[in-house]
């Protein structure tokens, strides 16, 4: 490709809205432009990188036996009502109406669509297992779109869904996706770690997140420095220490008016808090005892059973038996109707296990900067699991350390959660109907590109790994008005192209300084500079990553690059 023809608007200035390096560089290097908050156009260079990621993902998914399909972004509300997610998904779900006032959603994920597809077209064990995947645009109305395409509202995801006849089958499908993900992220040159994640209502060891390690990551990973244990902080198991022994924020508790706030959802909306990374709780007072029902992480509040919460080290002053006696439903936590005689004492949202918001037990008021244990004496609060670095690993007694990560992939054993609700059944060998056993597996394709830039850049620009680079080699004639340089650069461009490399030729009549700055910014793995020694057939070959450069004769160039 000749750069004089390429739509590649680079910027010297750092765009004001971009807080992190990858966002700044993806805009400055002309990979993308924002259309509106959290929505981006990919320019030619950006699109090439996206395609590289997609090709790796396709190859590995196909190799793992998954089959590619393409499902619509527009989905009818009825499917979401079948699974209860029409209500449970909340404001992140982009909803729209057609001209007949029928409700639709712009798909944030495709469990409903794929389950209905399989339900209607496959009903015998003979056709199972099957794994269907797509690479497609997803929509989520994130509370806080930020970091460019790391958290955008329109983004590209690879999502796969497996259907099995047994739990053992699901285990195999899951493992095969886990292995494929490991190959994908390795090939993409990411430094990553697979961590146990919080399975919420499903429980068990049924989910892992793949985290690209990075300081700007929004997730905290707790890992053991002695054994190979690693988990999302929300899920991490350590040897328990009470809150009182830990340090927490010193900001004083403050009473603030919160008119009309009655549920956790309203509370979080009121303080413009993001659902993820929070502990959410409702506190009931019943018979002079407090009950705290609590959920961690990004699970749908309505969908998490209290029993699972209690299992997942949630706090409750009362046992399940006691709660039954009190008549507190073991079904849903969240805005549900409490039985007669049970009053809501407080609601609570805790961010990063430090500062919290809690009901002031007074109509239309809340406390902010609450420190559980310091400001509230209710025993249940003191049980909040507040893990800190240096805690003891519950597996081996080693030390827990923290790292930050960007969630680039997620594998999840769904079980029969969707197939039961939607009636996706198959006939087993004995002619008996059984619900299909499902798994789902996502990769943030566009987020991966940003994670790659975040991990591979310096003060001058991007440093593409070979596998994702938009082009492999940048051929830069220092002065295109010099006929010798121009000719040599063109013949090198042709030669490298014939040898199978993807080459960008900077044939623009720009000053050398401008060209070099752009070349570093764009960050192709190899730069071949054609300058003063062109008449002798000598060019400079420079490796972007190490900065190493060497004069090479054109006749040796191919051998040198290999
Ligand atoms: P997060 O915790 O970052 O909000 P998630 O757990 O909600 O992500 P999943 O539902 O697991 O996301 O979706 C699968 C993958 O899609 C994620 O692992 C991530 O790589 C990607 N992804 C999710 N939300 C976004 C987004 N808003 N922008 C870009 N990529 C995203
Ligand atoms: Mg999310
Ligand atoms: Mg997540
Ligand atoms: Mg996830």
Automatic annotation (TrEMBL):
CC terms in the record's Gene Ontology section: cytosol
Protein keywords: Aminoacyl-tRNA synthetase, ATP-binding, Cytoplasm, Ligase, Nucleotide-binding, Protein biosynthesis
Compartment(s): Cytoplasm
Lineage top rank: taxon: Bacteria
Domain Aminoacyl-transfer RNA synthetases class-II family profile: 33-465
GO biological process: prolyl-tRNA aminoacylation
EC number: 6.1.1.15
InterPro entries: aa-tRNA-synt_IIb, aa-tRNA-synth_II, aa-tRNA-synth_II/BPL/LPL, Anticodon-bd, Anticodon-bd_dom_sf, Pro-tRNA-ligase_IIa, Pro-tRNA-synth_IIa_bac-type, Pro-tRNA-Synthase_IIa_type1
TM helices/strands, residue ranges: none
Molecular function in Gene Ontology: aminoacyl-tRNA deacylase activity; ATP binding; catalytic activity, acting on a protein; proline-tRNA ligase activity; transferase activity
Catalysed conversion reaction: tRNA(Pro) + L-proline + ATP = L-prolyl-tRNA(Pro) + AMP + diphosphate
Domain notes: Consists of three domains: the N-terminal catalytic domain, the editing domain and the C-terminal anticodon-binding domain.
Function: Catalyzes the attachment of proline to tRNA(Pro) in a two-step reaction: proline is first activated by ATP to form Pro-AMP and then transferred to the acceptor end of tRNA(Pro). As ProRS can inadvertently accommodate and process non-cognate amino acids such as alanine and cysteine, to avoid such errors it has two additional distinct editing activities against alanine. One activity is designated as 'pretransfer' editing and involves the tRNA(Pro)-independent hydrolysis of activated Ala-AMP.
Family affiliation: Belongs to the class-II aminoacyl-tRNA synthetase family. ProS type 1 subfamily.
Complex formation: Homodimer.
The name this protein goes by in its record: Proline--tRNA ligase
Source organism (scientific name): Aneurinibacillus thermoaerophilus
Gene name as annotated: proS
């Amino acid at each position: 490709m000749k750069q004089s023809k390429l739509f590649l608007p680079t910027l010297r200035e750092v765009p004001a809205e971009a807080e992190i390096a990858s966002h700044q560089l993806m805009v400055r290097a002309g990979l993308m432009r924002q259309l509106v908050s959290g929505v981006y156009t990919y320019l030619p260079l950006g699109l090439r990188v996206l395609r590289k990621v997609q090709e790796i993902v396709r190859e590995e998914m196909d190799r793992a036996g998954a089959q590619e399909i393409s499902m619509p972004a527009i989905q009818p509300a009825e499917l979401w009502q079948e699974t209860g997610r029409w209500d449970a998904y909340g404001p992140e779900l982009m909803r729209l109406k057609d001209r007949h006032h029928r409700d639709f959603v712009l798909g944030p994920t495709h469990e409903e669509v794929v389950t209905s597809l399989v339900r209607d077209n496959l009903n015998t064990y003979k056709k199972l297992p099957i794994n269907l995947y797509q690479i497609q645009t997803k929509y989520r109305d994130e509370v806080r779109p930020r970091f460019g395409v790391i958290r955008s509202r329109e983004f590209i995801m690879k999502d796969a869904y497996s259907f099995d006849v047994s739990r053992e089958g699901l285990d195999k499908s899951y493992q095969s996706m886990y292995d494929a993900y490991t190959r994908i992220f390795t090939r993409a040159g990411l430094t990553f770690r697979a961590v146990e994640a919080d399975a919420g209502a499903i429980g068990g060891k049924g989910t892992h997140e793949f985290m690209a390690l990075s300081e700007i990551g929004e997730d905290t990973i707790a890992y053991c420095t002695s054994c190979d244990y690693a988990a999302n902080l929300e899920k991490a198991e350590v040897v328990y220490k009470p809150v009182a022994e830990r340090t927490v924020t010193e900001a004083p508790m403050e009473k603030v008016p919160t008119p009309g706030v009655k549920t956790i959802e309203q509370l979080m909306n009121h303080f413009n808090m993001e659902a993820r990374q929070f502990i959410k709780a409702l506190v009931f007072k019943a018979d002079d005892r407090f009950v705290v029902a609590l959920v961690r992480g990004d699970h749908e509040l309505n969908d998490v059973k209290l029993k699972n919460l209690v299992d997942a080290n949630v706090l409750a002053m009362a046992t399940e038996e006691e709660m039954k006696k009190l008549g507190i439903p073991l079904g849903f936590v969240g805005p549900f109707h409490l039985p007669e005689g049970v009053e809501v004492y407080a609601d609570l949202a805790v961010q990063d296990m430090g500062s919290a918001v809690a009901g002031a037990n007074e109509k239309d008021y809340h406390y902010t900067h609450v420190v559980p244990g310091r400001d509230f004496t209710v025993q249940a609060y003191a049980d909040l699991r507040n893990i800190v670095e240096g805690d003891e690993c519950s597996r081996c007694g080693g030390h827990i350390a923290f790292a930050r990560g960007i969630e680039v992939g997620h594998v999840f054993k769904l079980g029969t959660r969707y197939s039961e609700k939607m009636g996706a059944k198959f006939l087993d060998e004995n002619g008996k109907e059984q619900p299909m056993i499902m798994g789902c597996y996502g990769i943030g394709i566009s987020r991966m590109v940003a994670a790659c830039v975040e991990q591979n850049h310096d003060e001058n620009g991007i440093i593409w790994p070979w596998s994702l680079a938009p082009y492999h080699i940048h051929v830069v004639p220092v002065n295109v008005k010099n006929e010798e340089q121009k000719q040599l650069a063109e013949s090198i461009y042709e030669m490298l192209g014939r040898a199978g490399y993807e080459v960008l030729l900077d044939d623009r009549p720009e000053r050398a300084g401008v060209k070099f700055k752009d070349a570093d910014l764009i960050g192709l793995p190899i730069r071949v500079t054609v300058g003063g020694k062109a008449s002798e057939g000598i060019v400079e070959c420079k490796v972007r990553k190490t900065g190493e450069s060497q004069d090479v004769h054109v006749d040796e160039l191919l051998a040198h690059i290999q």
